């Protein structure tokens, strides 16, 4: 009991130290975003709208890159597959990033998610580190449809699946290490803490069952072995882990279901329509940083609800397959 209380108090202290450091540094003048795209075989699954999950992942990434923001933004793109990941693009401006996204193709393979995420944190934190003129928000944007299944044993965040659910993760599990990496910069949690890494997650749901159905898209290891499927319960726990982790870091969590239309930018509650509900949410959180503002109102993911989020809602009012004839709200 005492040990648990000490660990909890230490976590609070580290978080407060990080916030003090951030306050002293001043408001962010840049955003550095590393987009990590799932390139595994199951991303070839075809949605009911005729696109693949991979195509939807690229569309989602392009929306993110194109979103207006009041500070300079730089993007890097990684893709994980097999037992490794590929750095598709180092940090570049939005225009270059959009061109890169347009040229990406799906390699296939299995899902070394923990390996890619933890190494991405290192690269993200190192970019422009030590530049006195830069105060940057660091964002890791993950787009995936499935659970970790192929991180090599030599990787820093290798480990067995957690036997317990988020937030009470099993020590030395891969989930426990990924969480520590985002919070402290070290898989074992021994880092300084307070590192401003925001995790935004887009999950392409309707997870593929690899065996036993004609519509499944199998994932194979680099040795050609079929990767075992995960149960519905296990996948639910995995998605809960990602959702909890994104909330804990001040990020967003978006689900895109295969059998439903893709979400529209400006749709804060994912009801497939940009309407007065979305408009009111942005207005009610206007001027606040995230947190305490509702992350759903931060449409361009810059950790503040401001004019740019307002304009995304206004410019997309009435858009979406769920809209009726009276969805417009600003004349």
UniProtKB/TrEMBL annotation:
<feature type="signal peptide">
    <location>
        <begin position="1"/>
        <end position="25"/>
    </location>
</feature>
<dbReference type="Pfam" id="PF13519">
    <property type="entry name" value="VWA_2"/>
</dbReference>
<dbReference type="Pfam" id="PF00404">
    <property type="entry name" value="Dockerin_1"/>
</dbReference>
<dbReference type="InterPro" id="IPR036465">
    <property type="entry name" value="vWFA_dom_sf"/>
</dbReference>
<dbReference type="GO" id="GO:0000272">
    <property type="term" value="P:polysaccharide catabolic process"/>
</dbReference>
<keyword id="KW-0732">Signal</keyword>
<feature type="domain" description="VWFA">
    <location>
        <begin position="32"/>
        <end position="150"/>
    </location>
</feature>
<dbReference type="InterPro" id="IPR002035">
    <property type="entry name" value="VWF_A"/>
</dbReference>
<dbReference type="GO" id="GO:0004553">
    <property type="term" value="F:hydrolase activity, hydrolyzing O-glycosyl compounds"/>
</dbReference>
<dbReference type="InterPro" id="IPR002105">
    <property type="entry name" value="Dockerin_1_rpt"/>
</dbReference>
<protein>
    <recommendedName>
        <fullName>VWFA domain-containing protein</fullName>
    </recommendedName>
</protein>
<dbReference type="InterPro" id="IPR036439">
    <property type="entry name" value="Dockerin_dom_sf"/>
</dbReference>
